[in-house]
Every structure is written in C-alpha cells, then in structure tokens.
C-alpha cells in the first residue's frame, strides 16, 4: 500500500485532534492506560503499518512508521502507550517461521492480539543483555522458564510477549552473545506461572517487574534457531531506536510549536516576549537541532527499509533526537516560566515524558560507546 506522506501526516493529526491535552492530563493523573486512543489507532490500521498486506497490515516501511509516531507526539499525545505494537512484532516478522507468521500476524494486524511487551532487561544485567540469567530449559516439546525481568512495559495490556532467555549456561571462551534464544509467550495461557508487579515511575508508562515460575512455552513458539536469539533481538532494537527517535522528534516539535506560539502571544513590559533575543534565539536553536536529528532519523529509516542491519544509524538517531527533544523541553519550560510548571498547560507532563529517552531503552552513554568502538574503531571502554 502506498500512502502519500503528507496525507499520512494529515490523517494522524486529525485522529489525534480527538484526544487533546485534557484527555492526556486525565490519564496522567489517574495513571491509566489510554485505551480509547490505542483503540482508535488500531481501528485506523496505523499500529499495523509495518505488517505486510498479506497478513492484514498496511505493508508500509519504517519511514512511514516513523512519521506516524512523530505526528502522534507532536500533537501532545504519548506514543509510548502503543509503539511496541509496531517494533516488537518485527522480531516475529523477520525471524519467525511461516507457520508462526500465519498464526499470529493477522491477529496482531487487526488488533485482536496485542503484542506490546518486549522482555529483555533484568535487574542484575541492565543494558548488558549478554549477562541475563532468565533460563529456558528444554524438556521434550516445551521449555520451562524461570527468572526475572524488570522495566517491561505494557505487559498488562498484552496478549503476547517477546521473551529473550538463556538456553545454555554461559561458558568460558564462548562468544558472549551465544546461548540466548527468543520466544513468543502467550500471556493468556501463562496463568500464575507469571507474576507481574507494576513499577511506579515519574511518567504514566505502564512499566512492570516480571517473575517466571516454571512457565511452559511450546518449542513451536521459539523464534528462529536456539542460541541465536541475540541477533534476532538486535534487529528489533534497531527498529525500536528509529521509532523512539521519531517520538523524540515529535516531542521536540511539540515544545517548539507551543513555545513559539506562546512567545508570540504573551506580552510583558508592553511587547511580545518573543521579540526578545533571549527568548527567540534558544527556540530557534532548539528547532534547528531537532531538524538535524530528523535528517539522521530519515537516513536510518531509509537504510532499515533497504535491509541495513547495523546499529550505527538507529543509535545515532535515538541519541541526537532524545538530546534535541530534551533541549526543546527546557526551552519551552523557560519560555512559559511559571505557567510551564502548571499541569493545565501540559508542558510539565511532556517535560517528564521527554526525559525518558535520554536513559531508555538504552542509556545515551552506551550509544556514545557504540559509536566510538563500532564506528570509529576505538578500544572498548568497558
């Protein structure tokens, strides 16, 4: 399916117009999941934009998916409630069997099945994915899983979950990324074998801690070959980086839109505050940094659609976009002054949300390390 990008942007803006600041403020105060908004995106088909048409999706590329999330966040909404329905299924789409795709992708595309949870991070491993301990022991035609995951978002709003677990113990001399496998967990069948505990955070992001107690997963639900899961997960992480960069770009443009409009209307000492260089220059500077990050994001999205598997572009896009958004957040807060702190304006809510991507799903310092070692060829710093 081909959709003109200008038309796509316009359609997303129209949908988001039905969910204004009051809606998001109410969800934030109640710490409630914005189900009505997610349902509207699902019904319009946008969350299935990356699913091929043969499975009921829109069959679009990463470039179009990026524009969708950018426009959602530019409207003042929060894509964090639903973005994983786009990138999490990429692991299944790229590495799953034909049978798995036929079984799950149509339901994911229609919204009958929610695949929002991506269980990788563990308390003692953090960003060092190769150190995870959650173990899947094979017994005949099933795996028995025990372990713990943390900061797993939207598991309570999902029917399915992508899980990375160790299937062979770590051994001296082996490659650190060996022995990890990926599974598609049907949460509807898990029962009390999965214990979920919500984590209270500074934003309304539905993040949880998970414990696995002898969870049984059919061998048929393993994605790809046993022991090669790290490579499969990385491809999903590249998509995640690009899409989250798009959210940061949308956040940044939201702050610029709000700050420039407010500065042009707010009068103090007989003139608009935007006439002062001390107000307008920081806004213009932040805007240009967002545009620069968007250019890197666009390049990374095109390369991903062309089959690029390296993490250079996606990681740089996430790093630059999150920093640009955070700068724009602070500029907006300075422009609004005391009113920026008032919840009714929505600036403080988006301010908190924009801060997340400086540290998640990967800390920006680790991206600096990645670029230094894998792009510039410098020695590892850890």
CATH class of the largest domain: Mainly Alpha
- Kindly report the CATH topology of the largest domain: Butyryl-CoA Dehydrogenase, subunit A, domain 3
Radius of gyration, in angstroms, nearest whole number: 21 Å
- The overall number of domains is 3
Helix and strand element order: HHHHHHHEEEEEEEEHEEHHHHH
Number of helices: 13
Reported for the largest beta sheet, the result is: 4 strands, mixed
> How are the strands of the biggest sheet laid out side by side?
1-4-5-8
CATH superfamily of the largest domain: Butyryl-CoA Dehydrogenase, subunit A, domain 3
Poorly predicted regions are none
How confident overall, as mean pLDDT?
96
**Percent of residues in helices:** 40-55%
Return the structural class.
alpha+beta
How much of the sequence is in beta strands? 15-25%
Cα shape: globular
CATH architecture of the largest domain: Up-down Bundle
The total of beta strands comes to: 10
Distance between the termini: 45 Å
How would you portray this structure in words?
The protein is α+β, with helices and mostly antiparallel strands and 382 residues long. The longest helix is centred in the middle third of the chain and has 37 residues, at 229-265. The protein folds into 3 domains: 5-110, Acyl-CoA dehydrogenase/oxidase, N-terminal domain (Butyryl-Coa Dehydrogenase, subunit A, domain 1, Orthogonal Bundle), CATH 1.10.540.10; 115-227, Butyryl-CoA Dehydrogenase, subunit A, domain 2 (Beta Barrel); 231-375, Butyryl-CoA Dehydrogenase, subunit A, domain 3. It has 13 helices and 10 strands. The strands form 3 sheets. It has a 4-stranded mixed β-sheet with strand order 1-4-5-8. The protein has a 4-stranded antiparallel β-sheet with strand order 2-3-7-6, with no helix packed on it. It starts with a helix and ends in a 7-residue tail after the last helix.
